[in-house]
Write a structure and sequence with these properties.
CATH architecture of the largest domain: Orthogonal Bundle
Low-confidence stretches: none
Number of domains: 2
CATH superfamily of the largest domain: lambda repressor-like DNA-binding domains
Shape: elongated
Helix content: 55-70%
Length: 134
């Protein structure tokens, strides 16, 4: 499948993780099941966004790199870092992190509600809520 001929987000994340563990494109491709004669070229094309891998190949690459599959699709560096960190945590620490995230979100919602209430009390226009994905 043809990409936009520019580095893809998936390719960027693969390259970051691959270089972090000192793996060449060829070595990663071979370990992921590509023929050794095309492994380097194919991985380069995936990283550059010329071709897009199928989901099964993407899962194999993530496993080899030691990252959760979602890491390879993270839209920001911050989210990629959080996903990668999540993958390294024990189940108990994951539960703690999830609780903390929920507490932070609840706090933000409370602060937004208080700002709206205060704006209404003084007759000002309520602050606009930022559109964010859930």
């Amino acid at each position: 499948m043809r990409g936009e001929n520019r580095p893809s987000l998936w390719g960027l994340r693969v390259k970051q993780a691959r270089e972090r563990i000192g793996l060449s494109q060829k070595a990663l491709g071979i370990e992921a099941g590509l023929d050794e004669f095309v492994a380097s070229t194919r991985m380069n094309r995936y990283e550059q966004g010329i071709h897009k891998p199928d989901e099964a190949f993407s899962r194999r690459v993530a496993a080899i790199l030691g990252v959760p599959g979602a890491y390879l699709h993270a839209e920001s560096d911050e989210l990629a870092h959080l996903i990668e960190t999540w993958g390294l945590l024990s189940d108990e620490r994951r539960k703690q992190l999830a609780r903390l995230a929920s507490e932070l979100r609840e706090h933000d919602l409370k602060m937004e509600a208080e700002a709206v209430e205060l704006a209404q009390e003084i007759g000002a226009k309520p602050p606009r809520r930022k559109a964010k994905r859930p």
